[in-house]
Design goal:
Helix content of chain B: under 10%
Number of helices of chain A: 0
Oligomer: heterodimer
CATH architecture of chain B: Sandwich
Largest sheet of chain A: 6 strands, mixed
Number of helices of chain B: 0
Radius of gyration of chain A: 13 Å
Shape of chain B: globular
Largest interface: A-B, 26 and 23 residues
CATH architecture of chain A: Sandwich
Distance between the termini of chain B: 37 Å
CATH superfamily of chain A: Immunoglobulins
CATH topology of chain B: Immunoglobulin-like
Distance between the termini of chain A: 41 Å
Order of helices and strands of chain B: EEEEEEEEEEE
Number of strands of chain A: 12
CATH superfamily of chain B: Immunoglobulins
Strand content of chain B: over 45%
Number of domains of chain B: 1
Strand content of chain A: over 45%
Chain lengths: 113, 113
């Protein structure tokens, strides 16, 4: 079975600084997607960024980018120029053709002003 | 904008009560999902549905059932609530296909006393 591991229960970053959240996964599939979701306090979970396993180029969405290392099964999220609104729980998730998402345990990100 | 709504944000029920959690999506998505979210465990899939009247068990279906009579509505039923079902329950929906992300509702925090 596929598993997703987020080894950092909590992270802190100073406003305007850069932070990297770690995620590793385990799968024997070759075709899959990886996602980072953001869950702000008391608000709905939203998609931050997605990466297709077949694409070597790392995905980027504004201040958010990933470092996808397929051989190492690693998928980290980098947040540049951190803002107070980035404070949230971040979940790494895996999806293959089974349609189901497999989530990590989450990382709480605190942003200090 | 995709909208996924859940019938209640907060719910308090007594042990042994039958509990209904309702979820509605307005984007004609084929797939709908019910998760429970617990600290340190991330999101765990309870059930999902890929079509009207079709359902599949997720990772933790024990003590739960579901109903999908219309495409836009997916209900989670706790036949006899127990204290270990106290949790945050999240509903999600998505289009069919590996590329598509899931859209989440705001969640229902259920407390069983």
């Amino acid at each position: 079975a596929q598993t997703v591991t987020q080894s950092q229960p909590e992270m802190s970053v100073q406003e305007a600084e850069t932070v990297t959240l770690s995620c590793t996964y385990d799968t024997s599939e070759s075709d899959y997607y990886l996602f980072w979701y953001k869950q702000p306090p008391s608000r709905q979970m939203i998609l931050v960024i997605r990466q297709e396993a077949y694409k070597q180029q790392n995905a980027t969405e504004n201040r958010f980018s990933v470092n996808f290392q397929k051989a190492a099964k690693s998928f980290s999220l980098k947040i540049s120029d951190s803002q107070l609104g980035d404070a949230a729980m971040y979940f790494c998730a895996y999806k293959d053709h089974g349609n189901k998402l497999v989530f990590g345990a989450g990382t709480i990100l605190r942003v200090k002003s | 904008d995709v909208k996924v709504t859940q019938s209640s944000r907060y719910l308090v029920k007594r042990t042994g009560e039958k509990v209904f959690l309702e979820c509605v999506q307005d984007m004609d998505h084929e797939n709908m999902f019910w998760y429970r979210q617990d600290p340190g465990l991330g999101l765990r899939l309870i059930y999902f549905s890929y079509d009207v009247k079709m359902k599949e068990k997720g990772d933790i279906p024990e003590g739960y059932s579901v109903s999908r009579e219309k495409k836009e509505r997916f209900s989670l039923i706790l036949e006899s609530a127990s204290t270990n079902q106290t949790s945050m329950y999240l509903c999600a929906s998505s289009l069919e296909g590996i590329f598509y992300e899931q859209y989440f509702g705001p969640g229902t925090r259920l407390t069983v006393t």
